[in-house]
Each structure stands twice: as structure tokens, then as C-alpha cells.
Design goal:
Blueprint lengths: L2 H4 L17 H23 L5 H12 L10 H5 L5 H22 L2 H6 L1 H34 L7 H13 L3 H10 L6 H29 L3 H32 L2 H4 L3 H20 L4 H11 L4 H29 L9 H28 L4 H11 L3 H13 L5 H25 L2 H12 L38 E7 L4 H10 L39 E10 L4 H9 L13 H8 L7 E10 L4 H11 L4 E7 L5 H19 L3 E7 L2 H10 L4 H8 L6 E7 L3 H12 L7 E7 L4 H13 L4 E5 L7 H12 L6 E5 L5 H6 L19 H8 L5 E6 L2
Parallel strand pairs: 1-2, 1-4, 2-3, 4-5, 6-7, 6-9, 7-8, 9-10
Antiparallel strand pairs: 5-10
């Protein structure tokens, strides 16, 4: 290195000039440009549900000779030919580890469990495109390969074999992500496509390895040796390395708790050695990485742990580099005549039509409906990043010319781009619902079918919402509650709220006295024998735990592992759901179940609404935990969007529980004693006293909240309430008096004087007076109070809550109380 280079830019170093002795400055410039452009392109494409590989290839095309290459000296300065070996080296190194992750995702048991269906769909989905691919290869070979590849062109047989493989390949990693994002994993379509995709992937890699080995072999005997040694290496990995690796992983505890540092080192060694071996025997090193992923234990804790440790640097740095390299080698300017465009269109049509036809017919033979079968065929036509890897291997091996390579890159982009919109069009959620109900026997296929989410289960005996039910009718149908769980912190607090739905009337007066309103308590706090012990009916609670599906491969693996009951990541072993469901063991007349879904966060509301409709839920409860000021960013960016989405999509009542101390209430009670029984007593939901402040203005939401308190919450003897009201209509007033008289020792009614000019200020002072402990809370209707109340509160000295405030979705009054410094939890009731 010269003195000027050592002195850096101050010594005259130009970082954009490639220096073989110091290539890092230019490489960093190249890497940053590629990553930034790919991320900028990915955002708008992600709104169209397009996989990231589309943005990465388009980014490479933009940086290459097709677009920015027309800028004078751009390519020669930023991507000089001398620097390309460095980019290729780093990109291929990352690709080896990416193929390792692909192998780690492959679930052989999925194929074995659906062998007949997976085998037939995969076979038909490969045979037809392979055959027509071989046919079109004849024209491509004589028109382009022989004419353009002057240096030692490959034989037509090898060329036809490669084109057939390129046509027949299906991108399993992209396919799995599309199925997850469209929530199709648990459907018949998802099961068939996923298992067939695995089969297709394995066969495709084997055929590609065979093609590369034959191309690299100088003679027939050398090719035979390459194939035999490759088979021997596969057997060695499966029967020698795999059991030893699993034994060491089990001894280190990595199968149960995740990979240790030693196991990560061992994993890296296996990947690198396998890649090295397949490279030196004449097969591409990526096959070694793929084989290493197959033999490494697929126990989900271990596999997900390994993936989490390496996926970010692979997917965020190395893969964009590799696929951008594909784009840099793509020159759309070579598609410069009618013949070339005719072949390009023919390649696209053959790739799509044959995949769709083969997959559709095979799926129909296996008993799927025509529309389901067509969806299977469409999904199997997805090419994605696997196709681009195959094309790059062909280009490097001298099988494809740059012009034909460009044709196939265009085909891969078009096929991948069309997969998601076509699938959404062919297999929309309403059709999935109809199929599920039909297969369950709830509807006849030819029955009129308009609004699927509102179709009830035939076994459901719940009365329609339009039917009038007498309040004193008994017994009522069980209350069905869906609880949306998004955060760990929400579990403890929401169980305290849910406990209020459970009656504690099994205690006699000698065992546990009912609560008495603070203003009416005597020293002995005697029980009024005339008070009504409301006997609530059973409560069925379903906890829906939602986790965000990110771009990470580990998130996808977690999503697919939910379907695997033997996986430690499965539903029955999820610690948060386990804790939530176990609470029901200590509650009377209740049943708590749980489910888990990993989906994009922008679909949380829609998915919850769909689940509530499926379960015929009476109520959706949304825990909203506020633990510290740092939570505001989370609340603003995510929870506000979720709650607004629920308001628009859920067709039953919604309760938003703004938890600002429920958990502390449980902890305070636990601290009164120091034994496990008290802990269970508190968490199981018996023993805390709760006081409620309920501002009542006679709105629709207020009336429903009043009914909810009467029929459910006050079945619990630990609850007292102060209800503050103003001038309300006669019917609302009668309902209020009926409620308060039924629980005269536990409820106090207060009217707001007509001379009060600032209602919100009055309620703020009242809330600070009534809410004295973390177990006390406020119940509010979501609907604006309106009329004179709105006018009288307009002069409030409280700060005005603007649209960007995190709590604006809870209603104006809730905003004003929180902004005014009320520290208690708030329950906002929104009627359907």
C-alpha cells in the first residue's frame, strides 16, 4: 500500500477508484448504494404484498446497464469490472448460508404426511413445464446459444436439461411466506402447496446439481465420478454427520433451550466444509450449504435459534448483494427485436400456464374443489429467489448467454409478481369461509351465500342480536369473550379484569362478606341480607395471541411451527398462553381456551374480527397496557391503528381495557401474604375489592355498559360503584334506578347539579376523589356525550386532545381524564 493510500483522503486517496490492495472503501460504497435502493423499492412493493426479492432484483436492474448504466461513467466508477469478483465472492459466501437456511426450513415430515397429494402435485407441476421447457429450448439454443456463445458452447442435451429445470422450479421460501401472509397455512390449499413445494424444491436442486456436474465434467467418466461422489457425500452427511451432530446438540441442551455458542461454531463448520467439498468435486458450493441445512436438527427451538442468530446479516446485506448482482448482469437493452420479445413472452406463458395447469389437474384429482385446485396451480407457479439462483448458476457455468439470462429474469419477476394478486383473486377470505362451513356441514353449497362472516354455526344456540330477551330470563347463554393478546405485559392485568366477569357467590357470608360502598361502610362492614346476589351464567373466554410476522425467516418458521403439535414453539407449549389459560382453573363456571397466530401487524384487527365472527363472540376485549412513558411510541404507532381497525371491522361489542394498575392490584394483594396460595388466590381472581366510577349520560354505549355491569360485573360481590349522571331521559333513568336499587349497599347514585358549567372538570375532580387505589377503575361509554354536555364541557381548562394523541381512539372523555392526571385504569365500552 502506498503512503498516500495509508494517509487516506488527506493523502489523495479516491475511495471510488478500485484498489486491489485496499478494495474495502469502494465495496462499502457499492454495498450501501445497493442496500438503500433495495429498501426504498421494497416499501411501495410491500404494499402490494410483493416479496423482497422483487425489489432487490429491480434495484439491481436500475443500477445496471439497463437504466443507470446510461449515465456517463456511472458503471465504470461505482461498479468497475475489476471490482466485480469481490462482490461475487461476498455474495456467494452469503448465498451458501442462505441455502443453509432454506435447507433448515425444509420439513421432510410434511412431505411424508401428505405423500400422495404432495407427490402428485409436485410431479405434475414439474413434468409439464419441464417438457415444454425442453421444447422451447430447441429454438433458444439454435437462435441464441450457438450464435452468441463462441467459447466452447455446451451440448444441446445439457442446455435442454437446464432450461427444463429452470421452467420447472418453484420458489419454496417465497411460497411459504406468501402462504403465511395470506393466512393459508392451515387450509387445504396451504397444506398441499407447502408439501408439494418442498418436494419440488428438493427435486429441483438435485436436477440442478446434476446439470452443473455434467457441464463441469470434461468427459463421461468424470461426470460419473462427480455424481457418485456427490451421492456418497449425501449419505455421509445423513448417516454419519447427522446423528453425531444431534447427539452433541442433545448433550449440550441446545435442542431444548436453543443453540449454544459451541453449537453455532459447529454448525458453521459443517456448512463451510460441506460447501467446500461440493465445490471441489465440481458441484456448486450452494448445494453444500443446502445439504448442511437438511442434516442439522430441525427441532424448532434449535432451528429457530440458529436462524435468528444469522438471518439478519444474510437477508439484509448478503442477499441484496447477490440479487442486485443478478440485476447488474441483466441488460434489458438486449431485448431489442421482435424475435427476442416473442421468445420472452413465450417463456413467460409456458412457465405460468404449465405450472398452473399441472398443479390444478393434480390437485383436482386429489379431491380439491376446482377453485382450490386453480389456487394450488397458481401458487406453484411462483419462481422467486430460487429461480434467480438457478439462472445465476447457469450464467456462471456458461449455459446461458446474457440475452437468454435477461429473458428468464423477466419471466421470474413476472411470475413472482403475479402470484399474490392472482391467489387473492382466486381464493378470497369469503370463499375460504364458505368452503370451511360447507365441509363442516353447516351450509349446502347451493344455498344463497352473501355475508359469510355472519353465517352462524348450526350447532350455535345463541339468540340473534335482534331478538328481545328479558333481563330476568334464566339461564342466559354463556357469555363468549375473545381477548386479543399482543403483549406480555397485558396478561396479568387483563386477568384481573376478566375475574370481574366471574361470580363469587359460592362463598357464604361467614366465608366472605360482599363489598359495601365506601360511603355506607360501618366499622363491622355488615352484609345487607336484602341485597341481590346476582347469579351470572358461564363465561367462555378465548385468548387470541397475535405476534407480528416480519421479514425474518425465523418469524416464518415460528408461524409454520404452530401447526406442529410436537414443536416446543407450538400452541400448547407457549408460556404466555399457558399462563392465560391456566387462570381458568381457579374460576367458577368458566372455560378458557387459547389460540395463536403470527401475521403481519396491519392485519391484527381484520384477523381478530374474523376470529370473533367464527366464535360467535359477544365481546372482544382489548388489553391496552400503559407501564411507562416509553410506551407512548408503541401505543401511537401500533395500538391506535389496531383499535381503530377493530372499531371498523368487529361486529360485536368491544371493550378496551386501558390497564394502568390492574396488575399492581394483584401484586398488592399478594404482598399481604407470603405464600403460594395467596399468589394463586390473587391471580385466580378472588379477594380484591374494586370500586368503579361510571359517568352515565344515556348514550347507546352507556346503556350497554350499564347492562354489562348489571348482568356480569355485579355478579361479583367484591365490586362497588359510584354512578354520576345528569339530566337523562326517563327510560335511561328508570334503568339506572332499577340497577342501583338491586345493589343498594354497593351503588351510590349522584346527579350533576344543573349549575355545573364545566362537566369534564367536575368529572376529573370526582375521579380523583373516587379512584383511590390501583384496583379502582373508571367505566366509560365510547360514544360522545353530545348535546348540552358537550357544550358545557367546551370551556374545560383541560388541555385539548389533538388527533395524534395516543388515546384519541378511547373517546373524548377518556382523553380528558387521562390528560388531567387521573391514574386509575379505564374501561371503554363500545356497543356493536
Amino acid at each position: 500500500m502506498t503512503t498516500s493510500n495509508q494517509a487516506g483522503v488527506f493523502g489523495g486517496l479516491n475511495p471510488t477508484v478500485y484498489n486491489p490492495s485496499n478494495p474495502l472503501p469502494l465495496f462499502i460504497i457499492q454495498l450501501v448504494i445497493i442496500v438503500v435502493i433495495c429498501r426504498l423499492l421494497h416499501y411501495p412493493l410491500s404494499l402490494l404484498r410483493q416479496p423482497r426479492v422483487i425489489a432487490e432484483v429491480i434495484g439491481g436492474v436500475l443500477l445496471g446497464p439497463s437504466v443507470m448504466g446510461h449515465i456517463p461513467n456511472f458503471n465504470s466508477t461505482i461498479f468497475p469490472p475489476a471490482s466485480m469478483p469481490m462482490i461475487t465472492l461476498v455474495a456467494n459466501f452469503g448465498l451458501v448460508f442462505f441455502l443453509f437456511l432454506v435447507g433448515l426450513e425444509v420439513d421432510i415430515s410434511l412431505v411424508l404426511n401428505n405423500l400422495r397429494t404432495a407427490g402428485s402435485v409436485a410431479l405434475a407441476g414439474m413434468a409439464l413445464p419441464f417438457g415444454l421447457g425442453v421444447a422451447v429450448s430447441y429454438g433458444l439454443y439454435h437462435t441464441y446459444h450457438v450464435a452468441e456463445n463462441m467459447i466452447d458452447p455446451v451440448s444441446f442435451g445439457l442446455y435442454a436439461l437446464f432450461i427444463g429445470v429452470a421452467m420447472a422450479i418453484t420458489a419454496f421460501p417465497v411460497l411459504a411466506r406468501i402462504l403465511t401472509e395470506l393466512k393459508l397455512l392451515s387450509t387445504n390449499v396451504g397444506t398441499v402447496v407447502l408439501s408439494a413445494g418442498v418436494s419440488n424444491d428438493i427435486v429441483g436442486w438435485v436436477l440442478l446439481a446434476l446439470t452443473v456436474a455434467l457441464v463441469n465434467a470434461s468427459s463421461g467418466i468424470v461426470a460419473l465420478w462427480v455424481v457418485l461422489v456427490s451421492c456418497g457425500w449425501i449419505l455421509f452427511l445423513l448417516f454419519i454427520v447427522k446423528p453425531i451432530f444431534r447427539y452433541v446438540a442433545r448433550r449440550s441442551g441446545s435442542l431444548d433451550t436453543g443453540p449454544t455458542q459451541f453449537m453455532m461454531i459447529l454448525t458453521f463448520i459443517v456448512v463451510l466444509v460441506s460447501a467446500f467439498f461440493t465445490s471441489i468435486i465440481g458441484v456448486h458450493p450452494i448445494f453444500g450449504g443446502f445439504l448442511a441445512g437438511i442434516v442439522v436438527p430441525h427441532d424448532r427451538v434449535f432451528a429457530v435459534g440458529v436462524t435468528e442468530k444469522i438471518e439478519d446479516i444474510i437477508s439484509l446485506l448478503f442477499l441484496p448483494l447477490y440479487f442486485a448482482l443478478s440485476g447488474l448482469q441483466t441488460n434489458l437493452g438486449l431485448l431489442d427485436n421482435g424475435t427476442t420479445w416473442a421468445y420472452t413472452i413465450a417463456i413467460i406463458v409456458i412457465a405460468m400456464a404449465t405450472k398452473v395447469t399441472g398443479g390444478t389437474l393434480a390437485a383436482k384429482v386429489n379431491g380439491l374443489l376446482w377453485r382450490e385446485s386453480l389456487t394450488v396451480g397458481t401458487l406453484m407457479s411462483c419462481k422467486g429467489l430460487v429461480e434467480l439462483i438457478v439462472l445465476n448458476v447457469g450464467l456462471q457455468a456458461g449455459i446461458l448467454s446474457q440475452r437468454v439470462f435477461t429473458m428468464f429474469v423477466v419471466m421470474a419477476l413476472v411470475c413472482t409478481f403475479l402470484t399474490t394478486p392472482l391467489t387473492t383473486l382466486l381464493y378470497p377470505p369469503w370463499y375460504q369461509k364458505k368452503v370451511a362451513l360447507w365441509r363442516r356441514g353447516d351450509i349446502n353449497w347451493n344455498d344463497p351465500f352473501v355475508d359469510v362472516p355472519n353465517v352462524p354455526h348450526r350447532a350455535d344456540t345463541r339468540r340473534p342480536s335482534s331478538e328481545t330477551v328479558r333481563e330476568d330470563a334464566a339461564p342466559r347463554a354463556p357469555l363468549k369473550v375473545l381477548v386479543m393478546l399482543t403483549r406480555l405485559e397485558s396478561i396479568a392485568g387483563i386477568t384481573v379484569f376478566l375475574r370481574l366477569l366471574m361470580p363469587n357467590t359460592r362463598y357464604t357470608s361467614s366465608e366472605q362478606a360482599q363489598a359495601i360502598h365506601p360511603s355506607r361502610r360501618s366499622d363491622s362492614e355488615k352484609v345487607d341480607s336484602m341485597s341481590i346476589a346476582h347469579q351470572s351464567d358461564a363465561v367462555m373466554i378465548h385468548g387470541l395471541k397475535l405476534e407480528e410476522l416480519t421479514d425474518r425467516t425465523s418469524a416464518l418458521m415460528r408461524a409454520t411451527s404452530i401447526e406442529d403439535e410436537d414443536s416446543p414453539l407450538s400452541l400448547r407449549k407457549d408460556p404466555i398462553l399457558q399462563s392465560f389459560v391456566s387462570v381458568g382453573k381457579f374460576w367458577d363456571r368458566s372455560r378458557i381456551t387459547g389460540a395463536k397466530a403470527i401475521i403481519p401487524d396491519h392485519e391484527f384487527a381484520e384477523y381478530t374480527a374474523s376470529k370473533a365472527a367464527d366464535l360467535n363472540s359477544d365481546m372482544v376485549v382489548v388489553p391496552w397496557t400503559v407501564t411507562n412513558a416509553a410506551d407512548n411510541d408503541f401505543l401511537t404507532s401500533k395500538m391506535v391503528r389496531i383499535v381503530k381497525g377493530l372499531y371498523e371491522s368487529v361486529t360485536c361489542d368491544i371493550v378496551v381495557a386501558l390497564d394502568r394498575g390492574f396488575e399492581d392490584a394483584a401484586v398488592e394483594h399478594v404482598n399481604e401474604g407470603n405464600n403460594a396460595a395467596n399468589w394463586m388466590f390473587a391471580r385466580g381472581g378472588r379477594g380484591e375489592r374494586h370500586h368503579i366510577l361510571f359517568p352515565f349520560f344515556g348514550t347507546k354505549d352507556d346503556l350497554e355498559a350499564l347492562k354489562f355491569l348489571k348482568e356480569r360485573v355485579f355478579g361479583n360481590k367484591d365490586v362497588t360503584a359510584t354512578i354520576v349522571h345528569g339530566s337523562i331521559d326517563t327510560d335511561s333513568h328508570d334503568r339506572l334506578l332499577s340497577f342501583s336499587s338491586a345493589y343498594s349497599e354497593r351503588i351510590v347514585l349522584e346527579s350533576i347539579d344543573s349549575d355545573v358549567t364545566d362537566v369534564s372538570q367536575y368529572l376529573l375532580a370526582k375521579a380523583k376523589q373516587e379512584i383511590r387505589s390501583s384496583s379502582d377503575f373508571i367505566v366509560l361509554g365510547h360514544e360522545p356525550i353530545g348535546g348540552a354536555w358537550t357544550q358545557s364541557s367546551s370551556s374545560s381548562s383541560l388541555p385539548v386532545v389533538v388527533e395524534s394523541t395516543p388515546l384519541n381512539v378511547l373517546g373524548d372523555l377518556a382523553d380528558r381524564l387521562v390528560a388531567g392526571g387521573v391514574l386509575g385504569s379505564i374501561i371503554v365500552y363500545r356497543a356493536k
